[in-house]
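As a warm-up, study this chain.
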Amino acid sequence: MTAALIVVAAAAMLTGGALAAVNHFLGAWTAPSDAIRPRCVATTELGEASLDPEQAANAALIAAVGQARSMSPRAVAIALATAMQESKLRNLDYGDRDSLGLFQQRPSQDWGSPEEIMDPLYSAGEFYSALAQVPGFETMAITEAAQAVQRSAFPDAYANHEIAARSLASTLTGHTPGGLTCVLGSADEPASAARVVGAFRSEWGDAPADLATVADGWAGAGTTPPQPTEVALRADSTTRAWAYAQWAVAKADQLGIDSVTVEGRAWTRSAGVWEAAPSPAEDLGTAGRVTLQLA
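Now compare it with the structure written out below.
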């Protein structure tokens, strides 16, 4: 009998604590109970797009910059399809020749300095500025509009990402409520409300946002106020409220957001899906209000 079979036979005769001791001695591995593969999915009637948290955060930024510039969902879809093809929605510090960033823009082609192009806010803004100069881009095929901006050696490649880009654009512009979900593990470190609001204002421009009241129970006399645990966003329509909410879900891993509540529904890091929001409905379901609970 081989040594491996002897070990198996011996383990089979053990029970209870003795078997546990043998497993420990042999280095038996058990998957941790909180093992989660972080993933975000945008699901619409068109199809779906599956991304990791880094890609989702970059997609949310691209969509927010477009909406801050009053660009249409179609324009957002064109931008997303372009970034999917060029960088897989990652802010790359390398590329073909001198190409850089989310859109693989080239300093030598007057897209900006390397430092500017590596700033996603700048590169997304430059893409939309160039797209807006393309006559009739709204009625073009997505791959044609993208190519008119990018002048790629592979002009038809953007079409490979059309369904995913349109699904992402629909969710991130608020036209498919509840269409974007993320399954995430626990936050790596406590979130900062100031950082969340800073990211929102950077990407959405002058859209209204404010810090909610500080943590419940603070008396306010002779003590240091705790850090705010919520961020409240205000929107002027249901569609924009859902755009804010799904931006927050896509950025949750990056910003340490634990839950998002809007229009009577809530996404939580623990559940990973949109569910009915808990009571009190008058606080959580207020029209146009998006509440972000921080980890």
